[in-house]
Amino acid sequence: MIPPLDLAALTLFCAFWFGYGPLARRIGRGAINTGLHSVRVLWMRGMLRRDNRIVDSALIGHVMHSASFFASTSLIAIGALLGVLTGLDRLQPALDGLALGAPVSRQLLEIKVLLPLAVMVHGLFKHTWSLRQLNYTVALLGAAPPEPSTAERRDALAEAIGGVLSSAILTFNDGIRSYYFAIAGLAWLAGPWWLAGASLGLLAILLHRQLGSKVSRQFRAARRLLEKEHDAAN
User: Fold this and answer.
1) How many other CB atoms are found less than 10 A from the CB of residue 114?
2) How far apart are CA 35 and CA 88, in angstroms?
3) Distance separating alpha carbons of residues 81 and 98, to the nearest angstrom
4) Do the Cβ atoms of 94 and 133 come closer than 8 Å?
5) In the chain, which ranges are continuous DSSP H helix?
6) Of 204, 2, 200, 5, nearest to 100 (Cα)?
7) Beta-carbon neighbour count of residue 215 at 10 Å?
8) CA-CA-CA-CA torsion for 67, 145, 49, 171, nearest 10 degrees?
9) Which of 166, 224, 232 shows the shortest CA–CA distance to 30?
10) What is the pLDDT of residue 153?
11) Contact 161, 203 (CB under 8 A)
């Protein structure tokens, strides 16, 4: 049985964990991750005009390497958390000293360790699915014609390939966020207030990066300039 205060903190954490992705996608083009879709479409339009696409393939390969690295790191983190879960008998006295308030039961302690473990497993699935989508993007790049027959077909093809690439990168971003949320989940070991505070703090940091940071303002300005340049070129 989870105490009411711990249950409320866990509910808040899960709401932020599952809700941040859809929320960020609905914020609009002001968010970096949302605005990047139009940039990727512009990239695909430029790719379709080029005969030499080595640079485009290298850029996709770089993202695939990053996704593979984080997928491997997720496996290591999952193994470490499984080790913690199987060694709670030795760790519980130390964790009881860390917790603020009365010592927690063994069952609740297992749930607290299972939370970051579940987050990392979810992130692993996101990373592997991102890799699959990046492979689909590579296949589409390889099949793209040197120059589409009409401007309408070029724009439609760029939009379609850019959509697949954006889906892959957004899935990769979801996997990256699993590290942040796993760290916030570990705060539960210190008590429910720590979990709630870490969840709120993490949400504020993520939203600030997307909307209020200096790089977000610079990105929006650069995106507008790129769109004007591509419109002038057409």
Assistant:
1) 14
2) 45
3) 18
4) no
5) 4-26, 32-49, 54-86, 88-98, 106-143, 151-186, 192-207, 214-233
6) 5
7) 10
8) -20
9) 224
10) 84
11) no
Angle between helices 151-186 and 32-49 in degrees, nearest 10? 140
C-alpha of 58 from chain center? 22
* Calpha distance 20→181 (Å, rounded): 11
Task: Measure CA of the first residue to CA of the last residue in the chain; give whole Å.
Answer: 64
Q: At residue 19, what is the residue type?
A: G
List per-block mean pLDDT (blocks of 10 residues) for the chain, which spans 234 residues: 87 93 76 87 89 87 92 93 81 63 74 93 95 94 81 87 93 94 91 93 92 89 85 71
**Whether 141 contacts 56, CB under 8 Å:** yes
pLDDT in the model for residue 160: 94
Q: What secondary structure does DSSP assign to 101-138, as a single string?
A: SSPPPHHHHHHHHHHHHHHHHHHHHHHHHHHHHHHHHH
pLDDT in the model for residue 126:
95
Q: Residue 144 region, left (φ>0) first, then alpha (ψ -120 to 50), else beta? A: beta
Residue 50: per-residue pLDDT: 84
**Which pair of structure tokens corresponds to residue 197?**
């505070």
Contacts with 100 (C-beta within 8 Å, 6 or more apart), sequence order: 190, 191, 193, 194
